[in-house]
Every structure is written in structure tokens, then in C-alpha cells.
Amino acid sequence: MEKEGFSSRAGAIAAAAGSAVGLGNIWRFPYVLGQNGGAAFLLVYVLFMLLIALPVLMSEFAIGRKAGLPVLDAFKSLAPGKKWYLIGFSGVLCAFVISSFYQVVSGWTLFYTYMSATGQLSSLSEQEVETMFQHTASDPVICVIWMLVMLGITGFVVARGVDKGIEQYSKILMPVLLVLIVVVCVRSVSLDGAAEGISFLLSPDFSKLTPSALFEALGQAFFSLSIGMGTMTTYGSYISKKQNLSSSAMSVAMIDFFIAFLAGLMIFPCAFAFGINPGQGPGLVFVTLPNIFNQMPMGQLISVAFFFLLVVAALTSSISLLEVVVTFIRSSFGFKRKKATFISAACVAFFGVACSLSSTVFDLFDKVSANILLPLGAFFIVLFIPYELGKKRVCEEFEAHGGKFKLFGVYYFLTKYIVPVAILFIFAYGIYGWING
Fold it and tell me: For labelling, which of 148, 163, 360, 366 has a CA lying 20 to 30 Å from the CA of 102?
């Protein structure tokens, strides 16, 4: 398999940030924030991202670049003859499972963009909007067709390669994403009554921080950066030795947080201006917001911009997910990139259809990946750093660009002692919630 890589630091950051920034930032983060006290949750989320999620991201980058290989081969290369390579298998499986149901939700965003652009959403009553979402999520024809369209776009980008596909399109899509979210934010904060929503986002109410809210913040910070599934390990293998690895990881985390914060700034002023509960749950984006857009001046234009924004966010993440599967196929069978992409996309399409036809399969894939594969993958990734690579080799990788990593001692302490315990808490809480949910 020929060696590929990002051509620039900006391209590497754009691609990795594109992987991290997805529907979790714009769809999930606002309603979880709304359910758990607004600004208080935001502060805890930032703390957990810096102390827990960022060290995992840095570890994945370091492992990938140290080996210069995608996730499975990276562990085989760095720990030959040992069982650490099973982490790679877990990562590939996790990326495949997530991609299968994620493409379905991505298809919904494209369908809603089409419905907005053709004016079919603006003509619906409040009840009809809710009925349409229920129909969309349960209609196999709609789910399958739009899922396949999104998968086709994803496959096209991945088939073009790392620099001419993933990097090139990430450098286009990420600025587009930022422009769109700023446009919708400006319109949202200019609404009468928007100040209350801004206050909700910026004024902390620590009385709302229950133990459940703390676990939600920890889980959101952890899953927000696309860690634990091998994506960032694979992307790390594409990063040049000349680039500052810790700085690149911090840049990705900052972009991820910034987009999530803007999502809150986009949605909460809008919700408060129209008297909507910001903790509406998963239906906030697909049910509540279309009703708000229908009551808003220039509502159809904002609706189109918003749902296209979701399409872009979904696409940047789905590209990284498919890339993990493609590199596995290429490495295992020696196929060229285009052939490996076609095979990978066909396999994802098969299980994507299963997720479209059965909510049971969809929920199973969602829960297995979120509650088992992701936390276990991340747990063993951070253990690999101190207990296999060792302090000296890891430090050398972070300083390969020629500069000193002044906070290496803090990073190493967190990775060895704090992060594994936090991940076990996430794992236990996720399993408990699954069993009792």
C-alpha cells in the first residue's frame, strides 16, 4: 500500500477537525446542553475536554504518526507479536458500525435540505412537521435512497485519496461549515427575545449539575472528538514529522469546541425567542427548529442554510469513518484505493439498509458503538502509551518537529493515571444506562 499523507498543517487540521465536527456538535450538543443547565454544563464540558478527551486525541495522533501506518497496522508495527493489534480491529469495527447507522441520519439531513429548498417544509403546520419527521425516520424508501446518496458523495471524496480527496475537500467544507453557522447565528441572535437564550448559554446555573449531567458532559467531551475508533490514529499517520503534534491536536479540539459553542449560540436564542424549551431532546433539530423557521422572517432561506450546514457536518465525519474501513481493506488485501473504497462503501450500504429497515438494528449499532467499542478502544489506546511505547518514545514523537513539548509531563500523567479511570466511568455508566434504559 503506497504511503499517503497530508500536504500541509492546515490540511491536516481541517481533515481532523472535520472528523471531530459532526452531527454530535450541531444536533446532539445543543439539546444535551439545554437539558443540563446551559452554561454550567458548558464549563464542565470544556474542563473534561481538556483533561480527558484531548489526551486521548494526542495519543491517537502520536501512535499513528510514530508508526506511519493506519490503525491496525500501527499497533502491529509498534508492538510486534503482541495482542495490542486487537485495538486496531476494534477501531475498524467501531468505525464500520458507526458509519452504517450514521449514513442513515446523514441522509435525513440531505432530505430535509431538499424539502427546505423546495418549500415543502414551510407549508407544513406544527403537527405536520412532527408527523413528517416520524414518517422520514420510519419510511424505508426515503431512508435508503438518501442514505445511498450521502454514501455515494462520501465514497467519491475518499476514492480520490488523502491529499486530493480528504484534505482538499476538508479545506473547502470546513470554511463553508463555519460561514453557514455564522450566518444562522447572526439571524438567530437578532431575533426579538434572543437575549434570554444568550443568557442561558453564558450564565451558569450550577444547581442543574447533577451526577447524570456530569457523566453527560464527560461522555459528550469524549465522543465529540471522534476518538476511540481509530480515525485519529489513521489521520495521525498522514501527519508530517515536521508538524507540531500537540499543537495540531489542540487546534482540532479548539475548532470542535468553537463549532459546538456556535451551535448553541445558533439554537438557544432562536428557541427562547419563540418560547421553545431548549431541552426538547433529539427532535429539537428536525421537529422544533423547522416550526421556528416557519414563523421567522426569511425563514425558508435560514432553513435551507441550516440543514445544508448539517449535511456538511455529517459529510466531514462520514468521510473519516469510511477512510478507516478503506485503509483496512487496502492493507489486508492489497487493493487499490478506488477498489477498496467501492468494497467498503458496498459493505456499509448493506448494513446501512439494515439500519434503515429496522429501528432495532439501528439502535443496536448505536448502543454497541457508543457504550462498548468506543470507550474500550480509547481505554486501551491510552494504556498503550505508558505501558507499551513508554515515556521516552512518546516524548520523542511529540518533539519530532524540533521543538519542546513543555506540557509533556502533564499529558503523560493524565494519560497514565487519570484518563483510563475516567473512561472506565464512561463505560460503566453507558452499560448501566443501556441495561436500565
Answer: 163
Q: Which amino acid is at 360?
A: T
Minimum mean pLDDT among 114-128, 276-290, 411-425: which range?
A: 276-290
Alpha-carbon distance of 329 to 293, in angstroms, equals: 44
- The end-to-end CA distance of the chain, in Å, is 44
List Cβ neighbours of 429 (8 Å cut-off, separation of 6 or more).
215, 219
CA 162 to each of CA 13, 15, 70, 237, 265: distance values in angstroms, whole numbers, following the listed order: 13, 9, 12, 11, 33
Tell me the pLDDT tens digit for each residue of 354-388.
999 999 999 899 888 888 888 889 999 999 999 99
Distance of CA 140 to CAs 45, 105, 132, Å?
36, 13, 14
| Count of helix runs (H) and strand runs (E) in the chain | 23, 0
Q: CB of 88 within 8 A of CB of 72?
A: yes
The closest of 242, 222, 285 to 5, measured between CA atoms, is 242
Query: And the C-alpha cell for 161?
Result: 485519496
User: pLDDT over 90 for what percent of the chain?
Assistant: 51
d(CA 28, CA 52): 20
Residue 229 has pLDDT above 80, yes or no: yes
C-alpha–C-alpha distance, residues 76 and 163, integer Å: 25
Distance, in Å, from the CA atom of 170 to the CA atom of 8, rounded to the nearest integer, reads: 12
pLDDT, tens digit, for every residue of 162-221?
888 888 889 988 898 888 888 888 888 988 888 998 998 888 888 888 888 888 888 888
Residues 116 and 314: beta-carbon distance below 8 Å? no
